[in-house]
Specification:
With about 170 residues, this protein is of the alpha+beta class. It has a single domain (about 25-170), classed as Lipocalin (Beta Barrel), CATH 2.40.128.20. It has two helices and ten strands; from the N terminus they run ααββββββββββ. It has helices at about 1-20, 25-40; strands at about 40-50, 50-60, 65-70, 80-85, 90-95, 100-110, 115-125, 130-140, 145-155, 155-170. A ten-stranded antiparallel barrel has the order 1-2-3-4-5-6-7-8-9-10. β8 (about 130-140) and β9 form a beta hairpin.
Length: about 170
């Protein structure tokens, strides 16, 4: 009987992970990650492939969304919106590729500041093989430094990764 009880308790705690659900602390990770994103409010700068890149972060909608404006010389502006959806942290990236990938934060490490997002779906994606941003990793290093890695997929495979190291300028 004790063995059966132990088996039932073990299954209850592991079933969400086996079924692909979020770990029990995912909501806490999402809220903590979102709180760190709010702290990015301001203006940031990097040099990417010899060109100046700027990010402006704004906390909007009564603190419920964080908007990231990205501008780089000779390229159209792009926009990313981060928000909580229950116990999930989501982003929608309004890309110059003409589609809008949505990603979910899969992990946040408060010690290192690493926040990893993975592709959920996209609007305006012509087909599953069309090029789109697929994964993002942010490293929220400290109050004045962050790095980003945006991974672009095409034909179901990684095509390139855009990396940048930003410094707060305001």
């Amino acid at each position: 009987m004790k063995t059966l009880s132990l088996l039932v308790v073990t299954l209850l705690f592991t079933l969400p992970t086996i079924a692909g659900g979020a770990p029990a602390n995912a909501g806490n990770d999402a809220a903590a990650g979102f709180a760190r994103l709010k702290g990015l409010s301001g203006e940031w700068e990097a040099t990417v492939e010899g060109k100046k890149a700027h990010l402006i972060y704004e906390v909007i909608a009564g603190g419920n969304s964080v908007v990231e404006h990205e501008t780089t010389a000779d390229m159209p502006e792009m926009l990313t919106v981060y928000h909580l959806d229950g116990n999930r942290l989501l982003l929608t990236h309004y890309c110059m590729a003409g589609n809008q990938p949505r990603m979910e934060a899969r992990s946040f490490d408060p010690q290192s500041g690493e926040l990893r997002f993975q592709f959920l779906d996209a609007t305006n994606l012509t087909n599953a093989n069309a090029g789109h941003m697929h994964n993002v990793t942010l490293h929220l290093i400290d109050n004045n430094h962050l790095s980003s890695e945006w991974q672009f997929f095409e034909n179901g495979q990684p095509k390139f990764t855009e990396k940048a190291q930003y410094t707060r300028i305001r």
